[in-house]
Design goal:
Blueprint: H1 14-23, E1 25-29, E2 34-36, E3 44-58, E4 64-71, H2 77-84, E5 92-105, H3 106-115, H4 117-143, H5 146-161, E6 165-167, H6 170-177, H7 181-193, E7 197-200, E8 203-206
Antiparallel strand pairs: 1-5, 2-5, 3-4, 3-5, 6-8, 7-8
Helix pairs in contact: 3-4, 6-7
Length: 207
């Protein structure tokens, strides 16, 4: 669990931390649960205190692609921007591993911007980080082969959970990469033959 006192921008403002807990709603979720759907109204922004959430973009034909992960201590900048401009969500947010999340109402989000410089610093830092992550995604899609993107995704998941054993299906990986399951299965088999990973039932072990 991440104590909000550990967040760099909040260390100098105990009052802000107190207000965040006072005005937010704390909820617990299991892996696979959706906390925000595309086209949904944004009434609050999530601040993850435990676990992680993945943010996904879905195309009209049903294909999905992973944009970024929200780790403990972070929030969703897409929710923040959409809520500020009173727009519906452009992404889907799904729990990657069991999570504890604070939901801060949008009226408090905007009020805190005016009252606490540390809150604005926090939002800007997240915006910068997400922008860099999206640039990486664009670069991978444009210049990397699917097998490289697949291995990169597996490494991100391993880093997220601090474990070389990744509990995931081929279908889930295909959705996050925006490709077909048969493609992912074939590439995973090749990576296993190259001794880069070991395949199990609904799990992958990086070697």
């Amino acid at each position: 669990m991440t104590n909000l006192n550990e967040i760099t921008e909040f260390k100098t403002s105990p009052e802000l931390i107190e207000k965040l807990y006072e005005h937010s709603i704390l909820k617990n979720y299991h892996a696979g649960e959706v906390i925000l759907n595309e086209n949904a109204n944004i009434r609050s922004i999530p601040i993850v205190t435990k676990g992680s959430v993945k943010v996904i973009r879905t195309e009209e034909d049903g294909r999905e692609i992973l944009l970024y992960y929200i780790k403990a201590g972070e929030s969703c900048i897409m929710s923040f921007l959409g809520g500020i401009h009173q727009e519906t969500s452009k992404v889907k947010a799904e729990v990657e591993e069991d999570a504890e999340i604070l939901f801060l109402p949008m009226n408090k989000v905007t009020l805190f911007i005016k009252e606490y410089p540390q809150w604005l610093d926090y939002i800007f830092r997240l915006y910068h980080k997400r922008f860099e992550e999206l640039l990486i995604i664009i670069n991978e899609i444009a210049f990397k082969k699917v097998d490289e993107r697949l291995l990169s995704l597996l490494e991100k998941k391993a880093d997220l959970t601090k474990s070389k054993t990744i509990l995931v299906t081929h279908e889930q990986l295909a959705n996050e990469l925006g490709t077909a399951r048969v493609v992912v299965s074939r590439l995973l088999k090749q990576l296993e033959e190259n001794k880069q990973l070991q395949l199990g039932r609904n799990k992958i072990i990086l070697l």
